[in-house]
Each structure stands twice: as structure tokens, then as C-alpha cells.
Amino acid sequence: MVTFDQIRHNEEIRALIEAGDQALGVIGFTDHGYGHAGMAAKGTGDILAALGYDGRTCELGRIAGFIHDIGNAVNRCNHALSGALLAYPILLRAGMDVHEATAIMTAIGNHDEGTAAAVTPLSAALILADKSDVRRSRVRSTRSRDDFDIHDRVNFAAESSRLLVDPEEKIVTLSIRIDTGICAVMDYFEIFLQRMTLCRSAAAFLGLTFELVINETRML
Fold first, then answer.
1. The pTM is what?
2. Helix axes 121-131, 98-109, angle to 10 degrees
């Protein structure tokens, strides 16, 4: 079986991640390189593991999380769809079973808030992991604070963020601590409300309630 470690070192995958991250850097987006890929991979696998899914499903979740943004190498517009179509033949060439490659393709194709839907456990876990990656280190080091847009400010203000799954209480909580001297809590909602709505539907697909806690205050 094709492993996460094999995909993580796959030359085609790495070239696409690097090209996509470079292109997004030029147009002013936050990090979408190996840092984000790694966080999405870990988060997707951890969510599925916490809910009791088998080891292979968790492994497929990590693979989907790691490669979910390769479509950015084509264009940010419709990157989930182009990424899904890129991923499928790469996974087959790597030796993956067609059913597993299809499951990953489906998850990648359904992760972006413009077109996303939680249609499988893999896609739901990927949505939650991807949309919860808010952190200061996502802001590009080449940008000065005078050049920050609202996405930069929100990520730079995030002192910590954790996604916690409580399978017994059937709750998944995104807990964020924001430095309100850098951005207001409402700034977070201005750019992430659609993402949080998507997280709520993804959590519901997994039989969970989604909670958003900012600075120890429950917002959703």
C-alpha cells in the first residue's frame, strides 16, 4: 500500500506544492507550502483517529491533507478541482489502489469553501483540518506589517490555535487566542465566517457539534 511517507517525498507532489506556494506568495496569500500541508495532513489524520477510524483511513486522510492544495500550481481559482484531477493520476502512478485514489480525489475536490461539501469522512476531516490552520507563521516573512492585508493581520494575531475532538461529548472545538491589539475578533469573522459555516457542516457530517472559541469566549 502507498504510504504517507512515500507521498510526502514524491517528486511530482513536492514540485506542485512548491510551485503553488510560490505563485500564491506573488499574489499576496499566506503560506500554502509545506507548513500548511503538514498541518493539514496531521489534523486530518488526528481527527479521523480520534473518531475511531481504522489506521488505513487515517493514513489516507494524512495523504489527502498533505496534497490538498496542489491545484494552486495551476491557479488559485478552482484549485480544489484542478488539484483533485492532478492528484488522481499521480496517486495511481505511485501504485495506489484505484478506490483509495478516488477517495482522496473526492476529498481534495470538496475542500474549498466556494464549492466544498462534506461528502465523505475523509472530506469532512480535511475541511476541519484545513480551515482551522490559523497561525502567525503562515504570514510570509518577506511582508512588513505595513503591507499586511486582513488575512495577514488575522493570522499574525493568532497566538495559538488548537482543534480538539471530544468523541464522547461529540464536540469538535477550534480554540484560538488572538492578540486584539493586532486585529479585532470581528476581523476574524469578516474573512472566516464562510469557513466556519463549512466547518459546522463538516462536523455535523461526522456526527459532531462544531464550536469556535476565541479568547476563551464561545462564538459559535
1. 0.94
2. 40
Cα-Cα-Cα-Cα dihedral sign, residues 125, 105, 35, 150: negative
DSSP annotation string for 160-188:
EEEEEEETTTTEEEEEEEE-TTTS-HHHH
| Residues sharing a CB contact under 8 Å with residue 150, sequence separation 6 or more, in sequence order | 183, 187, 190, 191
* C-alpha cell at position 162: 488548537
> In the chain, what's the furthest Cα-to-Cα distance?
50
DSSP H/E element including 8: helix 4-8
DSSP 142: T
Helix (H) or strand (E) holding 58: helix 55-67
pLDDT tens for 167-216 read: 999 999 999 999 999 999 988 888 888 899 999 999 999 999 999 999 99
Q: Is 189 left (phi over 0), alpha (psi -120 to 50) or beta?
A: alpha
- Residue-wise pLDDT tens digits, 34-90: 999 999 999 999 999 999 999 999 999 999 999 999 999 999 999 999 999 999 999
Alpha-carbon span 220 to 213, nearest angstrom: 7
User: Which SS3 state, helix, strand or coil, does residue 3 take?
Assistant: coil
Residues listed for the chain:
220
Q: Grid coordinates representing 137?
A: 507563521
Taking the mean position of all CA atoms in its chain, how far away is CA 205? 17
